[in-house]
Each structure stands twice: as C-alpha cells, then as structure tokens.
Design goal:
Order of helices and strands: HEEEEEEE
Structural class: alpha+beta
Largest sheet: 5 strands, antiparallel
Number of strands: 7
Radius of gyration: 12 Å
Number of helices: 1
Strand order of the largest sheet: 6-5-2-1-7
C-alpha cells in the first residue's frame, strides 16, 4: 500500500493539471495520454472532498484511474 504523502502529492499534481493534456504513468508501467479531469466536491459543512479517482479522456473515452494506481502525472 502506498503511503499517504505520496498519494497526496499525486492528488496535488492532478489538481494542478486539471483540464490539461497529460500523460499518466500507472504503477504497472502502462501510460494513458489525454485530457485530465480531477475536481473537488463540497461535502457536509462546506468541507472540500477530494475524489479517489481521476479521469483521463483518451480518444473520446473516459478512463477512470484510482489515485493510488498512479505513479506519475506529467504534461503532454
């Protein structure tokens, strides 16, 4: 299991690159390239809730990936 610090770093990177064309490297060595979607929601009492999934639109198909399955996210 991945530590929380690493998962938080991936989440912060996903937040920063939301809406941009990215390459997402998965732990198994596969790569997804497309437009990233990752946005927070608002929960009870106005608390920000971050999803555990990010979405990469690859060739018109949305691919959902768990944050803890992501090794790195970069532009392009």
């Amino acid at each position: 299991m991945r530590d929380e610090t690493t998962t938080n770093a991936i989440r912060e990177r996903a937040e920063a690159l939301n809406g941009q064309t990215v390459s997402v490297l998965l732990l198994g060595g596969q790569t997804l390239a497309g437009t990233l979607t990752y946005t927070a929601g608002t929960g009870t009492f106005g608390i920000t809730q971050w999803p555990t999934l990010l979405t990469v639109n690859v060739g018109g198909k949305a691919q959902s990936v768990r944050l803890d399955d992501v090794s790195a996210i970069g532009l392009g």
